[in-house]
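Request: Could I get any protein with tokenized structure?
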Amino acid sequence: MHHNPIAIQNLSYVYPDGTQALQGINISIAANERVALIGANGSGKSTLQLHLNGIILPQSGEVIIGEWAVKQENLRSIRNFVGLVFQNPDNQLFMPTVWEDVAFGPMNLGLRGAELKERVIAAMNAVDIDLEWYGQRSTENLSGGEKKRIAIAGVLAMQPQILVFDEPSAQLDPRSRRQLIELLQTLPLTQLIATHDLDLALEICDRTLVLSQGKVVFDGETEKVMSDPDFLHQHALESPLSYSRPYCLLEHSPVAKSYSLS
């Protein structure tokens, strides 16, 4: 276990069309921290995340994952260390059955037989998926919440030290969202969670990073930034629903106002 599994120093990145995606990013994330990454669309969140397992290589500055700099020669080790869970689980689920999907990564590492089975069972247990019920089911016939859990299980089967989530609660119904939150709270791993769901960030992350136009404009306590609506508004963000003023039908409804309430 590394004390600071993510260390980013002066990271900048410009896309081929000239778009400045990241500007002078400096971040250090300690082992087992759960950190929210928030910002408006186009703020640089996805670009930053893709640097963490080498899908994008640094143009300037440095990204250190565990003990490896993000460079071409270290990508195999880094991608075993960092598990990336995409926003849409359909982008990760491509094998005929749930079992084969979860086993795919470990099999590519050379695991077979009892060792492979143990790895898959442990990953499915971690996300509370019943092997007997789900093992031979097609991933195409699962709900959004089930697919999300299977995608996470497939990543966990690689035994990463870091989990990077892109909009984990997107497209989930309220019950599936609640189950996801409870799952993320139990996973004993470093987590970086990019999300527009600020209530999720408030509930499970003590620390939040705010990106705006490719720069870190806030790095600190989640509750502090979520309780500052003016700051959030300046960076095209809205306050969490749990911090919003309750809407009272009898006080605000145009229909209710047309009747005497006495």
